[in-house]
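Hi R.,

Here's the chain you asked about this morning:
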Amino acid sequence: MRNSTHHFSTEYSQRIKEMVTTIAAILIMLMLMVTISFDAVFGASKADIKESDIHSSGAVSFSGSTSQVVYGLHEDRKLPPGDLVKLMTAMVVIDNMHDDKEYNNIVTISSKADKLGDIYKKGQEVKVSDLLTAMLTRDSDEAAYALSLYSATKEEIFVSEMNSKAMELELMNTQFMNPTGKGDNNQYSSAYDIAVIAQYAMRYPFISEALRQGSGGGNIDGFEGALTGTLNNAGKTYQSVMISRRDGMQIIAVSLGTTKEGVSKEASLLTDYGHENASKDVIVKAGKKVGSVMVKHGAKVRVSGYTKTKGYAYVPPEGSTSLVQTRVVMQDRLKAPISKGTKIGEFRIYVADELKGTVDVVTNEDINTGWFPSYIYISNAAFVGIAAAAAALLFLFIRGRIRRAKRRRIKERQRQARIRELAMKQKAIEEDRARRNWTYH
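And the predicted structure, written out as tokens:
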């Protein structure tokens, strides 16, 4: 009986184990099916790029926030940059300025500049700011040439400065021959180099604003900057650089040698792919206070700076996060009035001592023009305080003088009263003596 019972118990246990194993196997299969289904459904929605989708001779999806190449197709191939040359032209013109007042300087259009387009006429006088805007938003070759002469007196000298700037940015596949982008077999760049040029150009407030206008005010497909152009081949070959920002991550999409239809299609593909696949190690949050700057002639003489967006870093797989360093660089001086959101510095992110990304440091308040003492960095509030303190001191001083004068008058009256009292006493004594007919010998 015990053997029979034992046999039944063993057989029952074995069946339980088989059932558990079978159920576990079914659950695992179901989990795998759900996972596969999830990936099939949601993975398909993720941005992906096939080489057949890109018709450019060279293209790149580049993180302007971290300097990471997220996707590249022949990104180092030397190709004609076309009108994208004007990004470098704008940077060199601004670099050569002494101060922002030069934006209002007048440039006279030369006969050669007049022949490069139909926006301006020979002898026409145009502000530097208007020429820069026309160059970056209307691809004006006239403006580019006129600005090169204004900035360096000769086109050859200006082009030399453009190439020096390229060397400074360590662009290994770029050479400039003119400031307009007109076709020249010896003028070339690459998709990667153009992305780096755009990355640095966006750090210039004037350029970034002009490129924002070029992208339809920053409202077309989320792009915050755009510049497109063609070569001298009846407009059959297009070059474009599109800059977008999502959650603080800046992606620069560059296409060189594509079709008119391919410009927007490739920009969208490269942009979406970049935003979904770029490394996003957050180094600094948006809205963090990182420094302050003195303000001349302002109602306030010191304004705080805050990071405009998140700051990211990309560390290669073989690297370490200990390689990441940061530095805040603020402007030396500002002059009122200043609008809220004005760039007053940069939060710079370095990886292995190389600058890889920046975050604009901006104001979060308006600073109006101050009173006269603000010229020597005394704010309105401080001046009110100083004036109030001075008035209080003056009041105390005057009150003290009044009190001292009053005390002197009281003492003088008391002295005079004592004198009169003594005189009265002396007079009374003398009268008493006279009455008694007292005499002294």
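Confidence is low (pLDDT under 50) at residues 1-8, 32-45.

Let me know if you need anything else.
M.
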